[in-house]
């Protein structure tokens, strides 16, 4: 039995949930007003037989005892497991600092010092001028450890080898890379160097800006166990305390964040050149209910920005802030600053700190921005187009609960569509509108309910699926339909989520390193198990077919579990049934049929 199973087996989900939410018995299940969204009639159910929970309302999510604690307390999987292990009296395997990482942190610190000396030397004179032009003062340059990488491609490596590091250590820290000649060279050459620290202050890598116009403009340390872009926010190690006090402001560039800190705005952090991830949003949400994103005018309407925003809206509101152990629900208030055309935050801050303050104060609610994006990009002339806009906006409006914020959002939507407020309200009040709009895109961990293997250590289907994914990077495309909620075992779900985060374009070993990260025993143990299990050799075509088969089986299992929960709930709470909700069962049934048909088709292809 794994530690996760052990913890789960010793806890009763009804006890754990009722410590946080007053539960009311209802036949074979318990119900309550959902703790994750505002509502007047209970749609949050706990199923003791299955040791699972589900919200049949706006959240449309569910899971097991650990996923409940993760959501309720705003914790990561590892932290939720530790908290529950303590409550269950289970001792978890000790989690220690990985010695390999300690060496890498030290190499990074030596590298930073070397880059700083290079910047201060004669070699760095034009770069120092550049920094002065960009308005950075000596203190800020020193505080953020900004440096310059020598352009010859050898100096840093030679220096670090003299310091006693091996070539392997340098390569795994990511400061050198083997060239075509199979010899290691400095990865960063003639670039402005920004040391990047994790939230605890460990130096995990570098961001490097080109100074001579060479591409790419920004180059980062290689993505891997040590440096994981999806989990970092630039400047968080320095901003933490002020974020807790004043809320977070998120800017796009390193220079923007440094300029802000220099001017005394110490609650500013920068994105890592990618869309915000759920993990980053969670990290902020654990500290504060207030976050403001500064968006570039050009980027504001683009799909990538809207996706970032959806991650924020989806995760920020529904989570609670946990403050030094005790948890409280602070009003979530995500906001957007759209920058004046052609201006970056660092320019505004250098020119006039008070203009920046005004911009931050005039930030608009993220949901207003999102609704405007929907109606400005959708068809608002035909009745069908208007209905589609309402359906698209519905999930965001439902997340607002029933207060003044929601009333404002409804009014805005009605105005933009040029229809009476009551018409929009009527359309929104059908629960199926919210759910139909929302479920197809559900990407977040949801169902994690009793599987036929729940009492075993293994789930062969999930393991087979992960073995294929980890062993064959080219299956990533075929994995389009695979979602984390199909995995019922936590360690498998976590492996899959990390594999998703790792993103495409990496080889097998790089992906494995990104998934492995460090010191997390539940996942490390699972990875070892997966790599030891034999895998039947197949040619590429058969492998894709076998993979699609297992994905479809996992999906079907997930649908079955959703359906049985819905059936229990409908049987036991008939007064809650509204007309539109029958559609959900119908839809599930249709999905079943489609899925079975697909599988039959694939089976024929394989045998034929
Ligand atoms: Zn809910």
List the helices and strands and how they pair.
Blueprint: H1 3-10, H2 13-18, E1 24-26, E2 29-32, E3 44-47, E4 52-55, E5 62-63, H3 65-73, H4 77-88, H5 99-120, H6 125-133, H7 138-143, E6 147-148, H8 155-162, H9 167-173, E7 176-178, E8 184-186, E9 191-197, E10 203-210, E11 218-220, H10 236-246, E12 248-251, H11 254-262, E13 268-270, H12 278-287, E14 290-295, H13 303-316, E15 321-323, E16 326-328, E17 333-338, H14 345-351, H15 353-361, E18 364-365, H16 366-377, H17 383-399, H18 404-417, H19 421-429, H20 431-438, H21 460-471, H22 490-502, H23 508-516, H24 521-532, H25 540-572, H26 582-607
Parallel strand pairs: 12-13, 12-14, 14-17
Antiparallel strand pairs: 1-2, 2-3, 3-4, 4-5, 6-9, 7-8, 9-10, 10-11, 15-16, 17-18
Helix pairs in contact: 1-4, 3-4, 5-9, 11-14, 12-13, 13-16, 14-15, 16-17, 16-18, 17-18, 17-20, 18-19, 21-22, 21-25, 22-23, 22-24, 25-26
Structural summary, described in words:
Helix content is 51%, strand content 12%. The protein is of the alpha+beta class and 608 residues long. It has five domains: 3-88, DNA Primase, Chain A, CATH 3.90.580.10; 99-227, DNA primase, catalytic core, N-terminal domain (DNA primase DNAg catalytic core, N-terminal domain), CATH 3.90.980.10; 231-362, Dna Topoisomerase Vi A Subunit, Chain: A, domain 2; 369-441; 460-607, DNAb Helicase, Chain A (Orthogonal Bundle), CATH 1.10.860. The strands form five sheets. It has a five-stranded antiparallel sheet, with helices on both faces. The longest helix has 33 residues, at 540-572. It starts with a helix and ends with a helix. Mean pLDDT is 82; it is low at 320-329, 434-456, 573-582 and 602-608. It binds zinc ion (ZN). Residues 34, 36-37, 44, 55, 57-59 line the site of zinc ion.
């Amino acid at each position: 039995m794994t530690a996760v199973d052990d913890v789960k087996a010793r806890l009763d989900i009804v006890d754990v949930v009722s410590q946080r939410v007053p539960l009311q018995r209802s036949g074979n299940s318990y119900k309550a007003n959902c703790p994750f969204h505002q509502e007047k009639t209970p749609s949050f159910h706990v199923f003791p037989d299955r040791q699972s929970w589900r919200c049949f309302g706006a959240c449309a999510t569910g899971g097991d005892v650990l996923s409940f604690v993760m959501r309720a307390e705003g914790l990561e999987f590892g932290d939720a497991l530790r908290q529950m292990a303590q409550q269950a009296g289970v001792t978890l395997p000790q989690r220690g600092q990985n010695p390999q990482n300690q060496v890498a942190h030290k190499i990074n610190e030596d590298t930073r010092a070397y880059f700083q000396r290079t910047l201060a030397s004669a070699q760095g004179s034009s770069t120092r001028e550049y920094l002065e032009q960009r308005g950075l003062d000596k203190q800020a340059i020193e505080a953020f450890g900004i440096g310059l990488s020598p352009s010859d491609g050898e100096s840093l490596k030679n220096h670090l080898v003299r310091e006693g590091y091996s070539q392997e250590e340098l390569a795994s820290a990511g400061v050198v890379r083997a060239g075509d000649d199979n010899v290691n060279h400095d990865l960063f050459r003639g670039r402005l160097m920004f040391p990047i620290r994790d939230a605890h202050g460990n130096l995990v890598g570098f961001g490097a800006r080109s100074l001579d116009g060479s591409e790419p403009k920004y180059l980062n340390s290689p993505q891997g166990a040590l440096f994981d872009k999806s989990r970092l926010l630039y400047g968080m190690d320095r901003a933490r305390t002020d974020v807790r006090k004043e809320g977070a402001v998120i800017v796009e560039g390193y220079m923007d964040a440094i300029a802000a800190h220099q001017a005394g705005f110490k609650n500013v952090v920068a994105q890592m050149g990618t869309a915000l991830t759920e993990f980053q949003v969670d990290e902020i949400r654990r500290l504060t209910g207030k976050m403001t994103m500064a968006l570039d005018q050009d980027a504001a309407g683009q799909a990538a920005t809207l996706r970032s925003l959806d991650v924020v809206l989806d995760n920020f509101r529904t989570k609670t802030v946990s403050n030094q152990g005790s948890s409280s629900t602070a009003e979530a208030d995500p906001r957007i600053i759209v920058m004046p055309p052609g201006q970056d935050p660092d320019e505004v801050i250098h020119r006039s700190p008070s203009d920046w303050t005004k911009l931050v104060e005039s930030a608009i609610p993220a949901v207003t921005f999102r609704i405007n994006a929907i109606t400005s990009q959708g068809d608002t002339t035909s009745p069908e187009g208007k209905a589609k806009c309402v359906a698209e906006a519905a999930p965001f409006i439902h997340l607002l609960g029933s207060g003044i914020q929601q009333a404002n959002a409804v009014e805005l939507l009605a105005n933009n569509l040029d229809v009476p407020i009551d018409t929009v309200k009527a359309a929104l009040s059908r629960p199926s509108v919210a759910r139909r709009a929302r479920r197809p895109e559900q990407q977040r961990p949801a169902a994690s309910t009793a599987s036929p293997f729940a009492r075993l250590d293994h789930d062969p289907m999930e393991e087979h699926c992960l073995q294929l994914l980890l062993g064959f990077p080219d299956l990533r495309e075929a994995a389009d339909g695979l979602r984390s909620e199909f995995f019922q075992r936590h360690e498998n779900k976590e492996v899959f989520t990390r594999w998703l985060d790792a993103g495409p374009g990496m080889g097998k070993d790089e992906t494995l390193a990104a998934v492995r990260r460090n010191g997390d025993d539940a996942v490390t143990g699972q990875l070892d198990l997966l790599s030891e299990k034999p895998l039947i050799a197949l040619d590429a075509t058969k492998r894709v077919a076998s993979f699609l088969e297992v994905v479809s089986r996992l999906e079907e299992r997930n649908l079955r579990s959703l359906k049985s929960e819905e059936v229990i709930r409908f049987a036991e709470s008939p007064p809650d049934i509204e007309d539109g909700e029958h559609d959900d069962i119908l839809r599930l049934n249709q999905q079943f049929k489609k899925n079975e048909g697909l599988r039959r088709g694939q089976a024929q292809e394989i045998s034929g």
